[in-house]
Amino acid sequence: MKHHIAPLVRHRLAAALFVATVLPGVAFAQTSKEKALEARIAELERQVQMLVSAQQQQQGQIAQTQTQVTEVRTLQAQTPPAPAVPAGKKPIQLTSITPNALPGTTFRYGGFIKADFMTTRTSDGALAEGAVGRYLYIPTQTPVGGQASSTDTDFHAKFSRFNLGVDTVTENGDKLTGFIELDFFGNALANQVNNLYGGTLRHAYMSWNNWLAGQTWSNFIDATILPEAADIVGPTDGALFSRQTQIRYTRGAFSVSAENPETLTTPYQGGNTILASDHGAMPDLTARYNWKGTWGTFGLSAIARQYRTRSALTNDTDFGGAIAGGGRWIINSNALPAQLRRGPGALSGSG
After folding, report:
1. Among residues 132, 186, 241, 278, which one has the fewest Cβ atoms lying within 10 Å of its Cβ?
2. Does the keyword Lipoprotein apply (predicted)?
C-alpha cells in the first residue's frame, strides 16, 4: 500500500508547483493588456475632448460672424440707397476723390458765381480809378469837398467764390478739418487787361479737435450778425469786419485766440490818408463767449492789442483794448442783428 501512495503524492505536488508557476504569468499578462487598453481609452478620450473643444470654438466663430453680418445688414438698411444713374449716363467720377484717406473721410466743395452790374454816382468829387469804393460801400472812400460830380459804371464777376473742405476722424478719435476759400477780388485794374482778376484768400485753416490754426474770421467779431445785402459786404459803418491769421482754442461756447497784429492810423486832419504798420511785437489777444438758442444768438468778446506805427511822420507805441456785444434775434421769418462795442482797441476792417 505504501508503495502505491508515494508516487501519487509526488504527482500532486508536481501539479501544484506547475500551477503556482503558470498563474503569475497569466496574471502579469492580463495586467499589461489592461494598462494598454486603459492607455488607448485615455487617448480616445483626449481626442474626443479635442474634437468637442474645436467644435465649440467653431460654433463661437460662426455666432460671431453671424452677429457681424447682422450689424452690416443693419447699417446697410439705415444707409439711403445711392440715386440710380439714368440709362446711358455714367457716374461723374469712377474712383474716390480721396482713395488713400482714412475711412469716413468726407470731401466737400461749394461757392457761387456772382456778377455785378452797377452805376455809382458821387456828387461831391470823383472816386479814383480802380477804387474799392466803386465796388463796395467804404465810408472813408466817399468823396467829400470835391470840385465836380462823377458817374461810374462797372460790370464785373470778381466776387464769385469757390471753396474746398475735408473732414475726417483718426483711429484715435481725433477730429481733423481743413477748409480753404477764394474769391477774385485781386488786381483792381484788371479790366484793362482782359479782366484777369487774381484770386484773393478769404479762409485757409486747419482744425484739430479744439484747436484751429490759419486764416478765418477774427475771434473778436461775430460774422453771423452782419446784415444781409446784395453788396458782398453790406453796410460797413461802424461794423466789426476782419479775417485774421490766428491760433484759436475753443471749449464749448468759450474761445480764445492770438491773432496777427496790424495797425492802421489816420493823421489828424489828414483826410483819407491811412498809415499802415505791421511792426507790432505783440499779437492781438481775444476772448469770446457765445449763447445760442431757438431765439437766436448772442455773444460777448474782448480784445487786447498793441498799436505801433513807424513811418516818416510818426514813431509811436501804445496799448488798447475793447469789449463788444451783439447778437441776432429771430422774429418770425425775419432776424434782427445788433452790435455794440466800446474801447480804443476795437477794429473795423472795412469802415
Report:
1. 278
2. no
